[in-house]
Each structure stands twice: as structure tokens, then as C-alpha cells.
Write a structure and sequence with these properties.
536 residues, alpha/beta, Threonyl-tRNA Synthetase, Chain A, domain 2, 3 domains, 10-stranded mixed β-sheet, 4-stranded antiparallel β-sheet, elongated, binds adenosine-5'-triphosphate
Length: 536
């Protein structure tokens, strides 16, 4: 130990142990060798590929390597041409993911985690979340991250935007569970693939998934989807998702609320829905009852598709809603005891009441009597209509409770661009903005882009609705008009209701005594026990 004096300070430096050179060099070689072996064990695919390429080079020289590469590229091109989705899943996705993990994310991982406040201190050491794997597809990178002990997915969700920008992206989302559903397996090897899926999609509470949007698939306008001849009410194609798949709306037995500031594309959501229902409108499986308080500006063009249409008089709009309630009541009386959820058929079609700018009916209407009447019918439809196939799909700009008192009665919500951060949670539900639905930060180009909550996951997904041009609407109205008797659904209201079933009388016991406690009865009637009191 060496002691030196620096002014008043005493500096104590331990004496350094000096090893001879003949011991240092083999020691270093041993250490590096062990590290190389450990790396090979941890990366068996990369090791095996390198060994294989070396073997080809040793046996066949450069020509062998080039022929091999050309062969692999050819097979890959044919694979992509014949079946692009499996090519992405099994070849391009893992390769690109590996490449981006090594050359993009690992390079700046420590810096990004520290600056996004996700690094923790333990035992005088910095502990970082661990990047386990990266999977890429044409649009997204999905990073699987092991959290530091003591962290929760909310810690990551709070800094979602910071993470996106830290990795040079505009959009990111954090999922606490695997962001994809396990695929449906069919065929001979389905049992084996299902077993593999059970491992791949197992619940991993110590892991979060960070999805970074590499190529924003929603930047370009989405063309209209094919109109299904028979609409599947549990999966209506309305929008494109960030991973280029189609977002499908589950409409059966639900009401839908679309919130969005002015000129953000609420019309495209409603028209995408009308289009998806087109086949059903023409075949009589669906009846569209449309209310357009803007005097027909939005919907008049599609008039032939609508069984009922009210756009000028608020009286007529209130009548339309009252009639929807009458249809609902008739169905309730007829179906009670037979089924619990109505199944649409041509005889008993699905009635979809589409309301553009709902606030005009619930808040801005000056006639207080009429407003009350409308509120009464809407409340009834929203609380009881879904199960009997009378659904409400409504759009509005301002989601405050004063404007729309029955906001909570809409099970399905869609948020397009909004003006204030607080409105996001009002439309999508508490905490949605924290979980990544930044609907108040939508850029100007993002018309028809919105956030939806997917079935089964609390995290919102970003989608862009198809854009239906005026020409497209005219063509649709000509191709899928409602049947001539479409407005006649109310004729059904006179149908007989089921008879009351005969019930056996319940054997009733004679009342054995008063229902109030004795102490209270005595207080009320002090003479109570005087003559007929307890028998000895
Ligand atoms: N899905 C979309 N894709 C591309 N552009 C769109 C989309 N939806 C709307 N737009 C564009 O945005 C403009 C406004 O759309 P739209 O009228 O549907 O908005 P809105 O929210 O219904 O407006 P308002 O509040 O006036 O009812 C349209 O003229 C159209 O050019």
C-alpha cells in the first residue's frame, strides 16, 4: 500500500498486483476463447450457418458460395411470390428482426433505456430491461423485452412516446400480452403446430412487447373493401391496421360510438360500415335507418340504401327513434323466453340506426320537449336494443357528458383525431391515452385514422378507415338498394305475442306471524301481549 499526501488530504492507493507477461497472455486467450464458445452456444443458428458456409467455401471455393447464394435467393423469391405471408413469418421476418436487433436496437439499448427512465439501480449497479428478441414484418418491429424485477407494463406504457422517438420512430405501442392471436391451425400437422403455439403464446408476466411502427402503413388512403355478399356481422371489414391486416368490426349485439373533431373523417367510418353492410341491405338482412341532422349533406347521396331517412325535421328524427323503440319492444315481447340474442334473418332483419352528429339531437336542439323525447328513446335503444337486433351507430364531435349523457352505454368506441387529451379517455374509456391512444396528436394528413380497442386486449390499435368517394357512394346506392318494402318493418309490430304459459299455483303457507321484530311491535302496541300473550 502506498500513502501520499496531497495538501491536507491523505490519498490511499492499494498496490497493484503485477503479473508476469507469460501468465497474462494465456489468461487473456483463455478468457476470449471461453467468450467465443459461450457466444456460439447462445447463437446456434448463426454458428451453424457460418460453419456450413465455411464448409462450402473449403470444398467448392468462391464459385460454390455464389451458386449457393443464387440458389437460396431464387427459392426465397419463389416462396415470396407463392405465399408471401409464410415467407415473412418463417424467413424474412426472423432474419430482418435479427439484423435490426443486432445493428439497430442493441447498439443504443443502454442509452435509450436510461434516458427513457427504465433503467433501475440495484446493489450499486445499473440494471436494464433485457431485449430478448425482435420480430419484424413488412411494417412493424415487435420487441420482446424482459422487465427489470419490480417493473410493470404500465412503467413502459407511460413512456411509450419517448420509446418511439428514442428508436427514431413516430409511433409505438406497449402490450402486456402477446400482440397477436395464435393462428387457427388446420391440416395433418395442426396438433403439432398447436402445441408449438401453446409455448409461443404462453402467458409471460415478466415480459412486455414493444411494437414500433417502422413503415407507417396508414399514411396512404385505404381503398374501399370488397362488399361481402352476405355480411358477417361479427367481422365487417372497415379499416386497415398498422400491420397491414384488415380491422373488422364486431357489430352484432353492440352499439358503436365514433368520436372525432370536425373534418377528421367520421363520415368515412360511417360510410365504410354502410358499405360493409351493402350485401345485407340489398338482400333484406339489414335495414339502415339513417338520421342526418346536417340536412342530408352527409347521407342524402346514399338514400336508396336506407329503409328510413330523416334529415330535415327534428320531429321526424324523434319519430324515427320512437319507431325504433316500437320495433325493439315488439321483438322483446316476441323473443322473450325463446332466445337471448336475436339472429338477423330476412323475416327479422338487423335494424341499424345510424346517427351523424348526435350532439344535434342530445344537446344543441332548442326544443326542450323534443330533446327530452329523443333522449328517452335513445336511452331505451342503447340500454335494451342490442340483444334484439336494434343497434345504434352514432358519430359526434364533442364527447363530454353534458353533450352525450349516455356515452357509457356504447360498448364499442372509435376515436378519430380529437382536439384535447382528456377527450381520448372520454371516448375510449379510462386510461386509453396512457396505453398509447394518442388521438389528440394526430397529424393533419391523418384523416380517417383512429384508435379502436381490440377484442380481448386492453391496448388500443391504430387503424385507417377506407375512404369512400362520392362516386363510390353513388355506385353503391345503385347496386345495393334496400328492397321496396324495407320501410315496412313496423307492420310487424302488430304480430301476436306469445301466450302466457300456464303456471301451477304456488302452495302458499299461511302467514305465521308479523314481519316486524317483536321488540318493535311491542313498542308500537304495548297492549299486544296483554290478553293473547305467550302461553305458559
Ligand atoms: N378515410 C379517409 N381517407 C382519406 N381521406 C379522408 C378519409 N376520410 C375523410 N377524408 C378526407 O377528410 C375530409 C373530411 O372528411 P369527413 O367529411 O368525413 O369528416 P367529418 O369528420 O365527417 O367532418 P364533419 O365534422 O364536417 O362531419 C374529406 O373531404 C376527405 O377528403
Amino acid at each position: 500500500m502506498v500513502l501520499t499526501s496531497a495538501g491536507d488530504l491523505m490519498v490511499i492507493r492499494p498496490k497493484r498486483l503485477e503479473l508476469p507477461l507469460w501468465l497474462v497472455i494465456p489468461g487473456l486467450l483463455l478468457r476470449w476463447g471461453w467468450r467465443a464458445v459461450w457466444w456460439c452456444l447462445r447463437h446456434p443458428v448463426a454458428t451453424a450457418s457460418t460453419v456450413f458456409l465455411l464448409a462450402v467455401y473449403v470444398d467448392h471455393g468462391w464459385q460454390g458460395l455464389v451458386s449457393l447464394l443464387v440458389g437460396v435467393a431464387g427459392v426465397s423469391a419463389v416462396w415470396r411470390w407463392r405465399h408471401e405471408s409464410s415467407w415473412w413469418t418463417w424467413l424474412a421476418g426472423p432474419l430482418l428482426g435479427w439484423f435490426r436487433r443486432v445493428f439497430v436496437y442493441r447498439r443504443i439499448w443502454r442509452e435509450a433505456m436510461t434516458l427513457c427512465r427504465l433503467a433501475a439501480k440495484y446493489d450499486h449497479q445499473t440494471v436494464l430491461p433485457r431485449l430478448l428478441s425482435v420480430r419484424s414484418d413488412p411494417a412493424l418491429d415487435v420487441l420482446t423485452i424482459r422487465m427489470v424485477r419490480g417493473q410493470t407494463p404500465e412503467d413502459f406504457q407511460r413512456v411509450t412516446a419517448n420509446l418511439a422517438y428514442a428508436f427514431g420512430r413516430r409511433h409505438a405501442r406497449v402490450y402486456s400480452e402477446h400482440p397477436d392471436d395464435p393462428p387457427t391451425r388446420v391440416g395433418r400437422w395442426a396438433w403439432l403446430l398447436r402445441l408449438v403455439d401453446r409455448v409461443r403464446f404462453r402467458d409471460r408476466p415478466s415480459v412486455v412487447y414493444l411494437v414500433l411502427v417502422r413503415t407507417d402503413a396508414l399514411r396512404t388512403t385505404v381503398p374501399p373493401f370488397e362488399v361481402p355478399a352476405v355480411p358477417d356481422f361479427t367481422a365487417l371489414p372497415l379499416a386497415r391496421r398498422e400491420d397491414l391486416t384488415t380491422w373488422r368490426l364486431h357489430l352484432l349485439a353492440t352499439h358503436v360510438l365514433v368520436g372525432g373533431a370536425t373534418r377528421r373523417g367520421k363520415g368515412s367510418v360511417l360510410w365504410s360500415l354502410v358499405r360493409a353492410l351493402g350485401g345485407g341491405v340489398a338482400s333484406g338482412l339489414v335495414r339502415l335507418w339513417v338520421i342526418d341532422p346536417k340536412g342530408g349533406m352527409e347521407f342524402a347521396m346514399g338514400r336508396p340504401m336506407f329503409a328510413r331517412f330523416a334529415c330535415k325535421s327534428f320531429e321526424a328524427m324523434a319519430d324515427l327513434l320512437d319507431e325504433a323503440v316500437a320495433v325493439m319492444r315488439e321483438r322483446q315481447a316476441r323473443l322473450a323466453g325463446a332466445v337471448r340474442v336475436h339472429t338477423p334473418s330476412v323475416a327479422d332483419p338487423l335494424v341499424v340506426v345510424v346517427i351523424d352528429e348526435m350532439a344535434a339531437l342530445t344537446a344543441y336542439l332548442q326544443d326542450a320537449e323534443l330533446r327530452k323525447r329523443i333522449a328517452g328513446s335513445l336511452g331505451l335503444l342503447l340500454s335494451q336494443g342490442a340483444g334484439v337486433g336494434v343497434l345504434v351507430v352514432a358519430a359526434l364531435q364533442d364527447p363530454r357528458k353534458e353533450v352525450l349523457p349516455f356515452r357509457d352505454l356504447f360498448p364499442t368506441r372509435i376515436a378519430l383525431g380529437l382536439t384535447e387529451a382528456s377527450q381520448v379517455d372520454m371516448v375510449l374509456g379510462d386510461g386509453a391515452r396512457n396505453r398509447g391512444a394518442l388521438a389528440d396528436q394526430m397529424p393533419r394528413w391523418a384523416k380517417g385514422v383512429g384508435y379502436v380497442i381490440l377484442d380481448g386486449t386492453p391496448e388500443p390499435a391504430r387503424v385507417r378507415f377506407s375512404y369512400i368517394s362520392d362516386d363510390e357512394i353513388r355506385a353503391m346506392a345503385a347496386t345495393y338498394p334496400a328492397p321496396v318494402d324495407a320501410a315496412d318493418i313496423l307492420a310487424q309490430v302488430g304480430r301476436e305475442t306469445a301466450d302466457e304459459p300456464a303456471r301451477p299455483a304456488l302452495p302458499r303457507q299461511r302467514s305465521s306471524g308479523p314481519l316486524l321484530p317483536d321488540a318493535l311491535l311491542n313498542l308500537l302496541d304495548p297492549d299486544r301481549n296483554r290478553d293473547g300473550g305467550e302461553q305458559a
